[in-house]
């Protein structure tokens, strides 16, 4: 399965805590030559199955900020989307993140996920473009980031499955991650 990354919104709620929406339901975003939106219930199975979901700084697994297993990361679906609250640890990375969020240098968040078989639907919009609806995703991580792909929206999408093979995407890999970048 392909790991995909998306962006959302973030704010400091009190000293040592961050909260916001990782995704907003129903918000359409253009990604290259197609549109995408996260549908209500897309995270339900991931939240119910008890998997450990981690919070990271800039998708870096060495910059761990919290996890659902430790109770420092709380995730919930509500009528608006996937909400989170993160209690930051007393680490240098977390202190830096807190300062950067407070000063609005970091304003966004993102999430990494896999789409299981049948987890998305592709619809022809009738105008030559396609709409991808994410209906069920396997959530892997949430992250805080200074550069959400689309800072003018509350939920910003910035990747798509490699299998689609569009030429204007660049594939990047390291030992732990695979990500796609718009050219």
Automatic annotation (TrEMBL):
Alphabetized UniProt keyword annotations: Hydrolase, Protease, Viral release from host cell
Signal peptide bounds: none
Prohead serine protease domain span: 5-162
GO-annotated molecular function: peptidase activity
Ranges annotated as spanning the membrane: none
InterPro entries: Peptidase_S78_dom, Prohead_protease
GO biological process: proteolysis
Name of one Pfam family that matches: Peptidase_S78
NCBIfam families per UniProt: proheadase_HK97
Designated name of the protein: Histone H1
Organism: Acidovorax carolinensis
